[in-house]
């Protein structure tokens, strides 16, 4: 919820700012909006820990999301290593 200043600007409570940051972090982690909407009611502010509404199903789904992210990280690490090899080889073969 927000209030308006005398100048017409909206002011939000710090709690709302924390919530927006949390949502941005979840998006950055690769979760889609539907999953975030399911997750938010199960989280406390501001630390994002689970509350009594968290379910075993949610934990299973979030574990799967984490595993997906871990796989993406592994794939990106492999891609970076390949690029490093190409860069190293190309650098050695360049005329001085």
Biggest beta sheet summary: 2 strands, antiparallel
Determine the structural class based on helices, strands and strand pairing.
mainly alpha
Number of domain units: 2
* Order of adjacent strands in the largest pleated sheet: 1-2
Q: What's the Cα radius of gyration?
A: 21 Å
Calculate the terminal CA-CA distance, rounded to whole Å: 63 Å
Mean pLDDT: 84
Give the number of DSSP strands.
Answer: 2
Q: Regions with pLDDT < 50 over 5+ consecutive residues?
A: none
Order of helices and strands: EEHHH
Shape: flat
Query: What is the number of helices?
Result: 3
Q: Could you tell me the strand content as a percent range?
A: 5-15%
Helicity range of the residues? 55-70%
How is this fold's topology laid out?
Elements: E1 2-4, E2 10-12, H1 14-28, H2 33-39, H3 56-93
Antiparallel strand pairs: 1-2
Can you put this structure into words, describing what you see?
The chain is mainly alpha-helical and 96 residues long. The chain folds into 2 domains: 1-53, no CATH class; 55-96. The chain contains 3 helices and 2 strands; from the N terminus they run E-E-H-H-H. It has helices spanning 14-28, 33-39, 56-93, and strands spanning 2-4, 10-12. It is flat, with a radius of gyration of 21 Å.
């Amino acid at each position: 919820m927000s209030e308006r200043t005398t100048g017409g600007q909206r002011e939000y409570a710090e709690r709302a700012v924390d919530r927006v940051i949390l949502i941005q972090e979840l998006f950055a982690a690769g979760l889609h909006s539907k999953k975030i909407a399911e997750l938010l009611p199960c989280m406390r502010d501001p630390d994002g820990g689970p509350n009594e509404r968290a379910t075993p199903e949610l934990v299973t789904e979030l574990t799967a999301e984490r595993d997906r992210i871990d796989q993406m990280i592994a794939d990106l690490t492999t891609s970076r290593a390949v690029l490093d090899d190409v860069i190293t080889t190309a650098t050695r073969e360049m005329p001085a």
